[in-house]
Structure formats: structure tokens, C-alpha cells
Write a structure and sequence with these properties.
two-stranded antiparallel ribbon; alpha+beta; 5 strands
Length: 102
């Protein structure tokens, strides 16, 4: 539950959400009115993986998220050094079942 007091937003983290979920793949789809981000945990050698969490947001909020991620990655790298991406760039083939306009 959230509540606003003195122009400050107080955010509560429910115990069942606090542990989070691990994801090593994000699948992003969009329509004219929303972005859908599915977070998946892919295990080596497995041909099937389940979506662990889905986040849906407006294009404006998706762009704000992009800015926040860029800012936080810059701060992380300033403190810990560059994030290195090892191995070849992986492209995930198209996923069936997505599409349409919201």
C-alpha cells in the first residue's frame, strides 16, 4: 500500500514480494499504448522456460525506466568499474503468442 504525505511517496514492500525473482532474460513487446516486459529464468540445456514476472507500463513510463536504468548503470560503473558482457551477443528467436494492439 502506498500513501502520499508532505509530497513524499511512502512505498511498502510486501513480504511475499521482498525476495524478488531471478531472471536472466527479458522479452519485451509493445503496442501503441503499452510495453509488456516478461522476465524469464532460462536454465542451461532446457528447451522450455517459464515467465517469472510480467510488468506492463505505458510508453512514457517505459522511457522513464530506460532513463533510470541508464543513470543507475552509469553510477554502478563509476563505483565498481565497467560491466563486461562476455561471449557472443545472444539474440532470442521470435516468441509465438505475442502481438496485437492493446
Amino acid at each position: 500500500m502506498t500513501e502520499e504525505k508532505n509530497n513524499q511517496l511512502q512505498i511498502e514492500l510486501a513480504p511475499e514480494v521482498a525476495d524478488g525473482v531471478y531472471a536472466n532474460l527479458a522479452i519485451i513487446a509493445h503496442s501503441s499504448s503499452e510495453f509488456v516486459m516478461d522476465f524469464v529464468s532460462v536454465m542451461p540445456g532446457m528447451s522450455k522456460a517459464n515467465v517469472k514476472s510480467r510488468v506492463i507500463m505505458t510508453p512514457e513510463h517505459a522511457k522513464r525506466l530506460l532513463g533510470a536504468l541508464q543513470d543507475n548503470i552509469a553510477k554502478y560503473e563509476a563505483h565498481f568499474g565497467p560491466i563486461r558482457i562476455t561471449g557472443p551477443e545472444t539474440r532470442i528467436p521470435p516468441v509465438m503468442g505475442f502481438g496485437g494492439d492493446a
